[in-house]
Amino acid sequence: MVQFKKHDAKLYRLGAHAIYERLRDQVVSGVYAVGEKIPSTRSLAKELGVSRTTVCVAYDQLAAEGFISVSQGAQPRVAVTFPTAEEPRTDQADGMAIEAPLSRYGRHLVTIGSLPQPSSKNVVVNFRYGEVASADFPSVLWRQAMMRALSRKSKVLAYGEPEGTSALRRALQGYLWRARSISCRTDQIIIVSGSQQALDLLGRLLLNEDDSFVIENPSYAMARLAFETTGAAAIPIEVDSAGLDTSRLGDISAQLAYVTPSHQYPLGGILPIERRLSLIAWAKRTNAWIIEDDYDSEYRYDMKPLPPLWSVDDSGRVIYIGTVSKILSPTLRIGYVVVPEPLIAIFKAAKQLADRHTPLLDQDALAGLIQSGAYERHVRRQRRLNQKRRQTLIAALRTNFGTDVDIEGTSAGLHLVVWFRLLPAASEDELVERARSLGVGVYSVRPLCDPPLSSGRNEQIGLVLGYASLDPEWITYGITLLRKAIAEMEFSA
């Protein structure tokens, strides 16, 4: 029997169309199998209290669409069958559902999975790296810059150039020379929607399946995933206190090397000039590209910045990536890539296919801030604020843990790594959960290490502590709570 609800107001309001929809849905969902009889027009009309003509109109439509077959003197039958719905198959622990054939890229993505997004629920003091304090954002300056950009009305609203506005690229050309001693032409600067888009596009442009790439270990996981999703294989090179150990490169053959020489992520080493030259020499010798991710180069505290790889490369092998996420906000998806001459046209084409261009109003506003000098004044202000946060965090760690911890990566950036020399790595997950139960978000360095580090650090608890989103008093409070979490672990032991 057709399954209708007597109180279904839509049924009686729509008449034939409602009957058609209900019968069609039941056939599609497998309530009726192919060849199975459905009620005659006369019996269904009587059951529903509608005219037979109304039911005939619904049946005629179902027959016309091939759902049922009708013949004079015979009861209508279902003419087609649909597979019963099944739970979508999932691959990998992250539950990525696969319901259709995928490309090689899609299959690689399923195999690799995505990074879990840590929950901030019930976290009062969050030492998560990548977040910045909302109070630090120059809201008034940005609003003024946006209003000026909106006031420059054009006759038509149209797509922009994929490489970015000429105003922003000119402004960045001057800024990069002043801040990082980078000399380049404006056509070598391409605006991207955040540095992650730069990594994604470069991976697809430079890597084939079965290629390989050199990457620091530990490293920025989103870069590694972007490259591995192309089907290329990682060649991890363990870092030391001075960053990538270039002596381990030897005769390794790879399509590219991804490095963070100005402030190694996450351990904080700064690559000395002799290693920079060694890396460039390796790239020349093996015909490899170098991707230089200068993700937080504006934050230098205890030393003058070394020149970026770009400025000491005379072979055109270095691709430089920068971003405004750490200075302004990660919610502003604006980054930039400085590419060698041979990559200009192809990178512009890839950017155009990806998303046409980065939002034009944001580009115009940022160009205005840089041209007016407001951006660099904001950089200096942020450097002072985060230097105070860094000092507060170091002091709190020393006060609460003394010589039981080793602290790395303190001379630059917006995070540091702390190693608990007396706490075994096996207890790390418990510590993270206990800290969270007290309202403190702390994050293990271990997921960034693949393979595990060969040094004794592998046996210790190691935490990445970001501090750019926290006021100094909250930093102190958070480390006090972390000490309490550790004390509870020791007590329960």
Describe this structure in words.
The chain is α/β, with parallel strands linked by helices. The protein is built from 16 helices and 18 strands. It has helices at residues 9-14, 16-28, 41-48, 52-64, 104-112, 139-151, 166-180, 195-206, 221-228, 273-286, 309-312, 344-355, 360-372, 374-401, 428-437, 472-492; strands at residues 68-69, 77-78, 89-91, 96-98, 125-126, 189-192, 212-217, 233-240, 243-244, 256-259, 289-293, 318-323, 335-338, 405-408, 415-424, 440-441, 443-444, 460-466. It has an eight-stranded mixed sheet with strand order 6-13-12-11-10-7-8-9, sandwiched between helices. A four-stranded antiparallel sheet has the order 14-15-18-17, covered by helices on one side. A two-stranded antiparallel ribbon has the order 1-2. A hairpin with a 6-residue loop joins strand 14 (405-408) and strand 15 (415-424). The chain is globular and about 95 Å long. The N and C termini lie far apart (66 Å). The model has no long low-confidence stretch (mean pLDDT 90).
User: Strand share of the residues?
Assistant: 15-25%
Shape label:
globular
What quaternary form is this? single chain
Radius of gyration, in Å, reads 30 Å
Largest sheet: 8 strands, mixed
| Structure summary, number of beta strands | 18
How far from one another are the termini? 66 Å
Kindly report the spatial arrangement of strands forming the biggest sheet.
6-13-12-11-10-7-8-9
Poorly predicted spans? none
Overall SS class: alpha/beta
Query: So how many helices?
Result: 16
Could you tell me the mean pLDDT?
90
